[in-house]
Design brief:
Blueprint lengths: L4 E6 L5 H10 L3 E7 L3 H11 L3 E3 L2 H5 L6 E4 L3 H13 L3 E5 L6 H13 L4 E4 L6 H11 L6 E9 L3 H6 L2 H5 L7 H16 L3 E9 L13 E8 L4 E7 L5 H5 L6 E5 L2 E5 L5 E5 L9 E5 L14 H15 L7 H20 L3 E2 L3
Parallel strand pairs: 1-2, 1-4, 2-3, 4-5, 5-6, 7-10
Antiparallel strand pairs: 7-11, 8-9, 8-15, 9-10, 11-12, 12-13, 13-14
Helix pairs in contact: 4-5, 5-12, 9-12
InterPro entries: Gfo/Idh/MocA-like_OxRdtase_N, Gfo/Idh/MocA_Oxidoreductase, GFO_IDH_MocA-like_dom, NAD(P)-bd_dom_sf
GO molecular function: nucleotide binding
Protein name: Dehydrogenase
Amino acid sequence: MSERFGVAVFGCGGVSTAHFDAYLKHPKVRIVAAVDTVPELAESAANKWGAEQSYTSVEEALSNPDIQFVDLCLPHHLHAPVAIQAAKGGKHVFVEKPIANTLDEADAMIAAAAANDVLLMVDQTKRYQNRFRRVKQLLEKGYAGKPILVKIAYPQDITYAWTHMSDQRRRTYWKHDGVISGIGIHAIDLLRWLIGEVVEVQAVASTTKLIAPDRKTEDSAIMILKFENGCIGECTVSYVLRDPKMAGSWDLMPLQIFGEDGSVQMDDDDQIRVYSHASTGGDEAVELLLPTKGPVGAPPPPNEGMAGAIDHLIECISGGATPLTDGNDARKSLAVIEAAYRSVNESRPVRVAS
């Protein structure tokens, strides 16, 4: 059997489930450790996912030589300190989005990874979903042409889940972060990948009492974007849009990309509509409706989402390649988020830091 890479998952709350599940199914990964400051969570995760060890100490876990890389499913403010400590210990780092809370923290993580010759990859999962890989391919083939305007939304209704979860989970960090950094960064990162770099943001946000009476962080936001290539865009995100479809799935992400030669659009049912003059020389338009799932009997698609991200992670560790969503790239998405928060606070457009 080929080499299996040992992973330690730090943070055994709800978000870690998809990570553990993907590692359990991956032929080149062994789950060496489950790590959490709450002993019961670490032990429970180790038992459920077959981890060889459970730890409550970062230092103790990082001292285990069987661990080649760490997966950080931690609150945002812990990303930088634990990632830096892991890098200094010679471990590759896979960290949940956003890379960190601030650009200074992100820079420190990037520097630590470079200084210790380890990989730093951020889990920007949307880039590894097959529906968006398909959109990327269509854009690269020129169906839409030079982008003019883009609209994306990430609408969720988490209110039912919030009221029905355990008190312990509600008291910790689940969804206490604002919607801009919590899920807005997924949409922003995806647009950077599909359209290009964002140079300016103007954002507005609001906070309701639908999640919790004492909530302080925003739960809805709209960001208006200017891209380096001249395209403009709109990004709408929310945790509190009262709709059964949005409560039943937190993966809805309708997308509209309009270019000089046509458009590529994906609806709430993940059906892609292409309208294009590119292949006819501009005289007539071609319209296509493309499902994002193949028919029965078709070759299986590549692993996607978390499994796809971990496939890519292992390939990069094995071959020494730079991840698609490495630290430097993830820093650019965080820079847009920082600019959005400044825009909300200052009520004006804000240039994105380089």
